[in-house]
């Protein structure tokens, strides 16, 4: 009987060891499979993000507003009828789309008006429905964080001076051929503003009331009541005439 039990225990021990040995590789295999799937998901996410980033860079499209700090400050806006000017308050006409044409050369399109900013051979700014060579501008970054936009094909052929996009103090478009329109002038400096929300930022401040109480002066006590003036008895009758003293002249003889 004891021999039979020992044989039984020996078989159970062997089968248990075999099951443990079989379960350990299976557990490792499942863990490795999970790691492989996780790595594949991460690689797919990274590749998708990189693809979207490359598409955004290759397209080179930016939706923003071009703010010129001349005068009270104006946003460049493009009207559906082809007019180009500036508006102090941001609106839908000032929402622009800047897209890359080549290295350093961009085009400017009005999102609402669906027209392209252009400069003719006289240096006048206007907007067209079709994109032509007049719509190509060279974008340069200045040291003061502002940008300048000069026409690619139109310039002063005698001196080689470039013609820039500019606004005057009243928000009207300036002639790029004007000798006063230079890259150093504030009228040619534009700042791309990416925040397109017209509503102002909302916020709150926390103030310490104890400090205000310390700083606010205490109210002064009311002034003491003034004593009532007692009127003296004044003679009401006719005023007595004062006797005038007459001085007789003195004559000295000898």
From TrEMBL:
SUPFAM superfamilies, A to Z: Cytokine
Region (Disordered): 206-243
Protein name, UniProt field: Fibroblast growth factor
Start-end of Pro residues biased regions: 218-227
Molecular function terms, GO-annotated: growth factor activity
Similarity annotation: Belongs to the heparin-binding growth factors family.
InterPro entries assigned to the protein according to its UniProt record, in alphabetical order: Fibroblast_GF_fam, IL1/FGF
């Amino acid at each position: 009987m004891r021999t039979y039990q020992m044989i039984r225990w020996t078989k159970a021990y062997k089968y248990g060891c075999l099951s443990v040995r079989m379960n350990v590789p299976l557990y490792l295999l499942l863990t490795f499979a999970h790691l492989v799937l996780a790595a594949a998901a991460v690689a797919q996410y990274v590749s998708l993000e990189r693809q979207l980033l490359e598409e955004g860079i290759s397209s080179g499209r930016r939706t923003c507003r071009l703010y010129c700090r001349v005068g009270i400050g104006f946003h460049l806006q493009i009207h559906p009828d082809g007019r180009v000017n500036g508006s102090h308050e941001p609106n839908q006409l000032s929402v622009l789309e800047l897209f890359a044409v080549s290295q350093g050369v961009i085009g400017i399109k009005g999102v609402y008006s669906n027209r392209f900013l252009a400069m003719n051979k006289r240096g006048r700014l206007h907007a067209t429905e079709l994109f032509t060579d007049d719509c190509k501008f060279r974008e340069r970054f200045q040291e003061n964080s502002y940008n300048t936009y000069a026409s690619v094909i139109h310039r002063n052929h005698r001196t080689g001076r470039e013609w820039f996009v500019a606004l005057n103090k009243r928000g009207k478009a300036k002639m790029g051929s004007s000798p006063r329109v230079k890259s150093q002038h504030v009228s040619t400096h534009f700042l791309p503003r990416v925040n397109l929300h017209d509503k102002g930022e909302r916020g709150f401040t926390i103030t310490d009331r104890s400090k205000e109480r310390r700083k606010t002066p205490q109210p002064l006590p009311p002034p003491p009541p003034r004593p009532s003036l007692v009127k003296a008895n004044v003679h009401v009758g006719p005023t007595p005439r004062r006797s005038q003293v007459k001085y007789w002249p003195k004559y000295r003889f000898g």
